[in-house]
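Re: the 529-residue chain
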Amino acid sequence: MKFNKTLTLLAGAAIAVSAAAVASPAMAQKEISIIRTIDTDRYDPHRSTARSAAEILFMVGDTLVALDYDLKTVKPGLAKSWTVSEDGLLYTFNLKEGVKFCSGKEFTANDVVATINRWRDPATKGVVTWRAGPVKEVRAKDKLTVEYELTKPYAELLFQMTQHFHTIINVDQAKQLGDDFGVKALDTTGPFCFDSWAPRNQTVLTKHKGYNWGPDFYKNKEAQVDKITWKIVPEESTRVASLQTNQADASQYVPYWSLDQFKANSKMSVTQAEAYYWTYFMGMKITREFMQDLKVRQAMNLAIDAAAITEAVTFGYATPATSYIDRNVLDFNEAVSKEPFRYDPEAAGKLLDEAGWKMTGDGFRYKDGKKLAPLVYGFTDTWRQIVEAVQGDLRKVGVDLQIQLFDATVVWGKLATQEFDIYTMSFPYVSTGDAMNLYFRSANIPTPNRSNWKDPETDAWLEAGSAALNDKDRKENFGKVLAKVQDNAVMIPLYHEPLFTVAGPKMQPVRAHGIYGAGFYKGIDLALK
């Protein structure tokens, strides 16, 4: 009897424990899903500039320094502190102790050195290596000290170091996997670990246990959920319905027409990034026949009603652009005029007349028997509505814009050619220098300097701004570049978009971050109610 009684007690205790495990919220897996529109080709920080890559890399990886919500304040990341020499050539980073990769590998200064060297190695075929700065040598002074030496000063190095390109990786794994690195596996130090990836379907991340070294602008030190599944949902209406029916928990990829609905729903939360710099524009390849004439480029700017397009496409949520970049961004030149980007079709017509393009009976302009019919290459989706509106505005002044749009699998190859007169683009940036260096440095021809802007004075100012040792000189030189390229009407700015994150009924409100358009940034504060 005693034996049986003991068995009965043990069995009852086991049942009670089992029931508690099922019922206790603390023991349950905390899982969320985030939906987005497109995928990347790989999750390798050195080989992808896609926002879809950055969204994952920011969560699974860390950088030496991090960018606060204002997009102007650099905070400690993997480095707890740093110093810069008076000549601006030597950055010394003191690293945090106790940091681990998801594999359990200890993080040291050697990992920083190996990461930067791998990025800059021609064999890697790394992208935008200029974001690493003019590196002379990166070396490990000791286990937790990195010396990052430059050949010349680079005023924006710390800002660039906050971007996903600077994610510290386990280079040993990268060497082992070769082209499969960032495809089959990815070993990093972030608050989440790379679990699995089904291209064009979903990417699964799991909580990095023991992680407590995140940026101090987060409320929490560790991730608040155990698993995040990023799902690809291309269709707008499906994304909206998924959030409304609790099939997905969060997204920043909600169409503008749905925002008022989400704001009116008491079960949902909508937050806007306090600082966010992402601009939509159409660039003109100035070496092409139609685009060589400054008056033609100026006329096309004046002929396009950016305010009306912005209202129609974004339901008034975005800001019509009166400059190539947002006027609130770091180092913006307040002296640049808004006048070149006003809507004035009458003035546009006069400029085209002066350029020798005469209106004929068919409603279009001709010169030497040739019709003014520039060709635009661009993206599908949102851009179709935009370029068709632009086409309508230009036809009012006699310009017959020809449109060829391509999906994401084709468009980048098309934009690498010299076959178009105009191209569509939207892009993120953190400062005036960031944007100007990207699109107007002659060394970046043919991409991303697709306008083929080649000007020695511009290059000199970019060099001077990048090498500036104080804020005044940096702003002055980058501001000169902005003024010059705007005076030369190299682009048609359309609008500066906002960034919103929407969280569903299960989620606590999400504070949106504007870095590189990755609204959830590191995801440490993503939490269930």
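Confidence is low (pLDDT under 50) at residues 1-26.
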